[in-house]
Every structure is written in C-alpha cells, then in structure tokens.
Amino acid sequence: MENDIDKHARKWVAVLHEQAKQNPQVDWELWARYFSFDVITALSFGESLGFLDAKSDVRGLIGNMDKAMYLQKISLYPPIAWFARKTFLGRLAGPDSISLMTTNLMFLMAAHPHLLKRAQLEIDKAIQTQQLSAQSPKYNDCRRLPFVDACPERWLQASEAQLRTWETLDVHWGFGVRKCLGKHIGSMVLYKSTVLLLHHFDFQLKENTRISLWSHPSSTMIRIVPRMDREMSLLHY
Q1: 3-state secondary structure of 78
Q2: What is the C-alpha to C-alpha distance for residues 127 and 138, in angstroms, rounded to an integer?
Q3: Is the pTM of this model over 0.85?
Q4: In this structure, are residues 225 and 16 in contact, taking their beta carbons and an 8 Å threshold?
Q5: First and final CA of the chain: distance in angstroms?
Q6: Per residue in 42-85, pLDDT tens?
Q7: Distance from C-alpha of 200 to C-alpha of 106, rounded to nearest angstrom
C-alpha cells in the first residue's frame, strides 16, 4: 500500500514541477483532488483512473461527486452510512477528505512563511542525515519529524495534560462509531505527500487571500516555486 502512495506522490510532485514551468499560479485544490482520487482508486481497485496523467477530471467523476456531496451531510443516518460503506461512490468519499486537508494545510503554511521555512529545514536536515528518503519518505519516518508532526508550534509547547485534552477534541476523522475507517490511509497519504511537497516547493499566497476560521482559503489559487532543481530525482516516478 505504501509503495502505491509513494508512486502517486512522486508523480504529483513531478507534474507540479511541469505546471510551475508553464504557470506557477495553480488551482491547488483541483490538483490535490486529482492526486487524492488517483491514490484512492489505486488502493481500492488496484489501478488509478489517471487523473494526474490526464490533468483533468476523468469521466467527470469529481464533478459527479460534487453533485452527490449533500449525502455527506446526512451520513449519520443508517441508510446513508450503508451507502457510504457499500457502494462505489460511497467508497470514493475519502479523496475529498484528503484533498481538503492537504489544501488547508498548505495554505496555512503559506500564510505563515516562518513556519513553512521551519518545516522545510527540518525535512532537509533529515534527508541530509539519511533519516528520511528524499524520493519515498516512509510514513513512520515522517512522523518522527517533531515540527512537521506537531505543526503548528503550540503542540510542541503544550504539557502532556493539555495534549491529552486536545486529542479528545480532535474530530478531523469523525468520532465514536462514525469515525472514519480509512483514517490510517488518509494519515499516511497526508504525511508522505506533505513531506515531499515541502521538500520540493515554496508556497506563496495570492494577494488578498484570506484563511477562514475553519482553515479554508478564500481562493484556491496559490503560487508554487520549485526549491532549486529537485525535479531530476523524480524522473523515474
């Protein structure tokens, strides 16, 4: 499973390098969805549908998912919960969770350049000291990066008691009997892709972009700038 995630994460970074050469201003949410749908379809069906290769919405699947998103709002009801677990469209609900988290995280980092730089330096150092692979960072190795794991800073400064309290309030993956069954997959994808992305790119917000109380940006357009010439290591993704 982790190898499949690595393959698509490397492909995403390579495609973003190509896009940055053409136009560094990209619709980040769109590309994050292409990546996450490729990963989830590969893990679910043994082969991705090729969103990153096509650089477009294959078979209109993402558009159709958007039309069906209202189902998510009522997913606490047993018939809809069954739909989410047992049907093709239901099983594809995961990609939007991954793309949303990736989008929110990158925009929050871009809104705080000193935090972005701190995370990048931590990743670079781990790679230089061979604690982390530059091409295929392992999930467990990514989680050993203190700042990347804790971002933002308050998680490093909090007491054990405070951390336990915050953990009880974490509902990113749902809670109770409705907790996301794919949490471990989503976490793995998020950690591994984040480390690769921060190693390869700087992120700059468009002027007047605002981050909402719920961490979502007012515009999904962002400027990606390759950090030196790191695309050569991804030629064989």
Answers
A1: helix
A2: 12
A3: no
A4: no
A5: 16
A6: 988 888 989 999 999 888 888 877 666 555 554 444 444 554 55
A7: 13
